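Sequence in, structure out. Go.
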Amino acid sequence: MYDTSSPYNWKHYKTVSYPWGQWTLTDASLSPDNKWLAYTSIQSMVSIAPTDPNDTGDPYTLDLDNGPSHGYHGRRGFGIWSVRFSGDGRELVAGTSAASIVVYDIESRRVLHHVRGHSDDVNAVCFADKMSPHILYSGSDDTTIKVWDRRSMGDHREAGAFVGHIEGLTYIDSKGDGRYILSNGKDQSMKLWDIRMAMSTDRFNQLDPTAHANTSGFDYRGGIYDDEDWDVHPHDNSLVTFRGHKVLRTLIRCHFSPPTSTNSRYVYSGSTDGKVYIWNMDASLAGIIDVKKATIRTRQMDNRHRFYHFDEPGNWGTCVRDASWHPNAPLLVGMFPHFRSKTLANTSSVCLEWL
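Output:
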């Protein structure tokens, strides 16, 4: 954890761990009051750690699987890909490898809803409105986004759906106004949606939205996407489609620009080519921040790890997995792993100005 009260001079003050984590940390979410950090791995448990530098106790562990335990340390049947706090900080929503969405009450340590709402991994979840816990979104490898109303979630039936991606989703971000949502997909496109245009459940059930998904066998983790495989989904109900970035190797994230300094008039995304792409709302390109160029050879590579394959000039690659726009300063922070050709190295972050 870092003290970022000075945007240009971060100070590390605390490190927390995840007990019995598997392979990686998959997601993290800061509570609305900035007092707690929830973070996940490919397990059914969420760790919650206090951000107070004087609190040196172990993190709390919340088990989101209410089914029977099995195996070493009671590990359960799913991992968590995405986790978010509700606007009041009292609940968590999580997307799982079991194609399900879990809503969890932190105070009572109880699973409120566990719905198998998709046919593949749920890579992204979020609340629609920071002022209300009632409406949720979920994005899946089955290529769809679903809208959930907590007040009718007990029958395991979505309140609506968005269709338009032809590959799985990597991330979704709500504008926080209960209306607009942004998504990134493995079809190398980002989309803007309006909840008022969501497809009804009856209409969704009449269609086979995955019938138009790409069937080329493309694997985003190691493959190169052929743009000839991309086409407009015949039932696409998105408002705007943004293209130009690369969504490969990892679950690349996208966001709305902050409301305070920009009135949320931009959207932006990380990219496998080491850049942050910034668009106007009409899909015209507002700017590109070249993180790779700014950080090339800034640290020594670790040649022991061979996982990704990059054919980059100079044997250097940088993949921007996520970026975050400062709420007031003209500043973006990017999280990226450094690569040499055919080599995975360490992960870092960098602050870059964009005016």
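Check: Residues 69-75, 304-311, 339-346 have pLDDT under 50 and may be disordered. Residues 2-289 form a domain with the Methylamine Dehydrogenase; Chain H fold (CATH 2.130.10.10).
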